[in-house]
Design a protein that fits this description.
The complex is a heterodimer. Chain A is an alpha/beta fold. Chain A is built from 14 helices and 4 strands. In chain A, about 65% of the residues lie in helices and about 5% in strands. In chain A, strand 1, helix 3 and strand 2 form a beta-alpha-beta unit. Chain A is elongated. Chain A starts with a helix and ends with a helix. Chain B is built from 19 helices and 23 strands.
Amino acid sequence: MWRQILALLVKELLAVLRDPRSRMVLIGPPLIQLMVFGYAATFNLNHVPIAIYDQDHSLASRDLIARFTGSPTFTVKDVLDSARRVNELIDSRAVQMVLVVDPRFARDLLTHQPAPIQIILDGRNSNTALLIEGYANSIVSRFALHWAEQHGIRAPPATLDMRALYNPTLSSTWFIVPGIVALLTEVETLLVVGLSVAREREMGTFDQLLVTPLRPLDILIGKGLPGLIIGLAEASVVIAAAVFWFDVPLRGDLLALYVGLALFILAITGIGLAISSLVATQQQALLGAFLFLVPSIILSGFATPIANMPQWIQTLTLVNPMRYCLVIVRSVFLEGGGLPVIAAQLWPMALIALATLTIAGWLFRKRAT
Amino acid sequence: MPDIPEPAAAVRLENVRRMFRSGKRTITALDGITAAAAHGAVTGLIGPDGAGKTTLMRLVAGLLRVDAGRIEVLGIDVGRDPLAVQAQLGYMPQHFGLYEDLTVQENLNLYADLQGVPHADRKRRYSELLHMTGLGPFTARMAGRLSGGMKQKLGLACTLVQPPQLLLLDEPTVGVDPVSRRELWEIIGHLTREAHTTVLFSTAYLDEAERCDAVLLVHEGRLLGSGPPGTFTAEMTGRSFYATSGIGRRRLQERLAAVPGVIDAVIQGSHVRVVTAQATPPEPASLLADLPDLALIPTAPRFEDSFVARLRTRPVPPQMSSATAPVASGAQTPHADLRPRSKTDAGAVITVTHLTRRFGDFVAVDDVTFAVARGEIFGLLGANGAGKSTTFRMLCGLLPPTEGELRVSGFDLRTAAAPARGRIGYMAQKFSLYADLSVQQNLRFFSSAYHLHGAQQNVRIDWAIGEFDLANLLEASARDLPLGYKQRLALACALMHEPDILFLDEPTSGVDPLARREFWQRINALAESGVTVLVTTHFMEEAEYCDRLVIMAQGRVLTEGTPEAIKASARRTDHPDPTMEDAFIGVIEAASARAAA
């Protein structure tokens, strides 16, 4: 039996690797996605265009504005001398924030009154607006602290002293790139496995396989194993890129990471094979794959935290293998987690893998014979 | 070759070349074709698959551009003004775009709208077309529910909604049942007679040459000959014979094929049809001295004889470009040497009883019963949609029957354990191979799938390479093989494990006559050594190679018997030598007469 499965495995790998187009699909898009996600998908804000409306023109206001000008987060696009153009600038998306300094700013500061500073934000993208507010807030509070120190005023009674564990600079890259390991592994495994049976159906070789003494289980394993091999190879490339290109620390146990990924790939292979059993053409397989991919990524915690989702959706994410894989990948990369730490993620994924492979086997047998 | 008179040419091709790129390879689809098609005549573009017929059609229609040369259609240079040409021609591609969810009438309306037929003219035109195609009673039927032949006729009607000057028909008769095929030809004849339409008609069926006014015979992108079909057969006068002898037709065919001076020997019914290189009638004794009972009866030449003669005498092109290299000497006994079989076991190997298969309320196979004995070549003959492929798939265990029973060497392959499938060889339609794998990798995979390994596997792979003459192509991807070699490789893969039973689905569809002969020579030798062969085909000619066959239409078996007996049933005093097609039509007509009564 193993001899036949080995023959199937070799055939499957050759079919994928000898065809220049499928070779491209395996190498091109993942690299592009890695670069695009690695650089573009970031929560850090840089060079936010802003406008300044300084009604005070005092030493204090210039000092405050200099802190905005000097910050890499903000780029001053315009300096206003009246409130007239504020709406126009925001409407046309020329700037995302307008900083308005009150004419009594310096006077209030010197007389120890609360000195108001207004920021006007473009609320159309609420997420960005919140981030901008946060940055502006921290600049203003640093200014206030500095002013208090210089002028011998008692500092505010309680101050926040923040230290982020695992990702001290709160770099988005550190958060996102390990996630890409899971994301690309899922996409590639699903495509390789999902399209393979459909391709054989289209070419007529599937019938040819079914009339050989190979049993459906042999064929199933012969179709699943290449997914595991290609998925692990793909994951290894992304892991290497994460460590050597994006400088994300890999602190944990590599073995734990691979155990997690292997279980994850098995779960995805089951889904790919189930899709493959249901469809007749590669086009349908592709549609089926994306029907699964999009919700599975959104409901994985890749970009948006699962904890923020409504309770019933949180429950739904429990059957999403990528949810567990993401925790494993981030834990091993950033926390330095090992097998004991990720054990809580392994068993649900093993259950999902068992379920999807069983369903795939059942569908396969049903459709094949 | 008599030239078609120059001024009357509706289509003129001057040294037309066209290349395609496929990966790193450049394929020359048309290699310098110079020819012409006369006004108001039916010009047949005849050749096997891959000859360049469709490319030529698309060039004439202005859908592709020539790489070199020039095409003139109705006096217009197609390269310069394709739109002017397209306004005057009707083109029916191989897969005509009928909308299956629209009715016959709605399809006609749609094409009338697309071609801008004035509303005032439509009623008259529709009634002409519906009358001509016999689709009048079916205007409200969905196109998807028409039979294959009716679909082709509807496609033709849609193409003719705006009467064209030039009609291009790309393989309209492939897979169509003989009755519909005959009707299609009647429509075409009517068009040229009444409307003086010029027709360019492509086909892979060589027997259709005789229905054309002129023929362009193409093969591998080159023109092998042109002229009225009579000139092709005239060259062959006095060179065709029926041979009979007591040693049996298969052995006789094998012996005759090896005689120098015999360019063709094929089994036809109980005789062997022989074509000689010279027109001097041979002395039977000089052909095969040890066969005193060998008798030769002269017979009329066919178009195919001339094609075969041309292929045999043409210089053999370099490797990879031809599928017609000589058969390796081992072909006579493919593997009798490896596993001697006894032919004494005469029990039925395949039995089918009251087999029925429904898809929803559609009955694809309707109460089919037959049995095949060991070492027999058994044919399922029928048009596309006759139910033969569904029967075939059920026999292979690929599809469950709705009712009835089937047994293949005692097993139902659907429920049988894997080893039972190990006794079956299967060659799928279109020679399904792993296109991205090399020849060697395909052989290795299929032999492994059939549980061969180690030394035994290597022996079989070496056998396949030698037997099918694949040594020079081992590293080539199956995708890049010429059609004839694909067919050889598919057969080699199906024979790796020396099966007792061989299932062949449309095994020679589209290949050239020499490749078909070579193929059947091997199958005959296999049958001689005791292998049971079940073959589906829509080629009437191919039925002649079978020991027995059933003719199927609309899911039912219309008749069963030897090719001789089936043909004899169609013999009339005014038609003493009917072809398989005549018999087929007779059987279908008799069945519909019974249904009407």
